[in-house]
Amino acid sequence: RPGFHNPAVTAKMAANIDNISNGRFTLNVVSAWWEEEARQYGGIFTAHDERYDRTEEFLDILTGLWSAEDTFSYEGKYYSIKDAHLHPKPVQRPNPILYAGGESPRGKQTIVDKCDAYVMHGGTVEEITTKIEGMKRQRSEAGREPFSAFGLAAYVVCRDTEEEVAAELARITDVKESS
């Protein structure tokens, strides 16, 4: 969550985990959608499109630090990095796979421009097929390489009875998105 984390520290942690895992690390970058969560965790929550502007800067810093030969500097609206060194670099080149999800046109554009993989959060087979085909088309129209992967979040709710499962499902899916 770019509004919750320092991008340079995130880049360093991710590079170290990628080295420890011998190149098996991936990162899901969440631009945020729930204002209450940001409040609870002390994160920054801004207007919808501004969250994606922040995410783009966050991703520019991650990939910049991972690919810079020596030092990396960045001056943006949200972040400022000056002469930062990052060693070791990630095992995966040019970087660990960057996932992100989003349904809005602005969100999808950020994913097409800055990420390697698209993650979705449920839907019917037909809905997921439509999302994948749409993102493939948008990526191709942008002149970018095909996505390296697609992801789908899935959850298991275990309770003693079907009624308890239904109640828990209602509880965890009754979160209202913030704008």
Describe this structure in words.
By secondary structure, the protein is an alpha/beta fold. 44% of the residues lie in helices and 15% in strands. It has six helices and six strands. The protein has a four-stranded parallel beta sheet with strand order 1-4-5-6, covered by helices on one side. A two-stranded antiparallel sheet has the order 2-3. It starts with 6 loop residues before the first helix and ends in a 7-residue tail after the last helix. The mean pLDDT is 93.
Distance between the termini: 16 Å
Write down how many β-strands occur, each being a DSSP E stretch of 2 or more residues. 6
Give start-end ranges of low-pLDDT stretches.
none
Q: Report the biggest beta sheet as strand number plus sense, adding barrel if it closes.
A: 4 strands, parallel
Overall morphology: globular
Strand order of the largest sheet: 1-4-5-6
Tell me the radius of gyration: 18 Å
Class from helix and strand fractions: alpha/beta
Give the count of helical stretches: 6
Oligomer: single chain
Helix content: 40-55%
Order of helices and strands: HEHHEEEHEHEH
Strand content: 5-15%
> What value does the average pLDDT take?
93
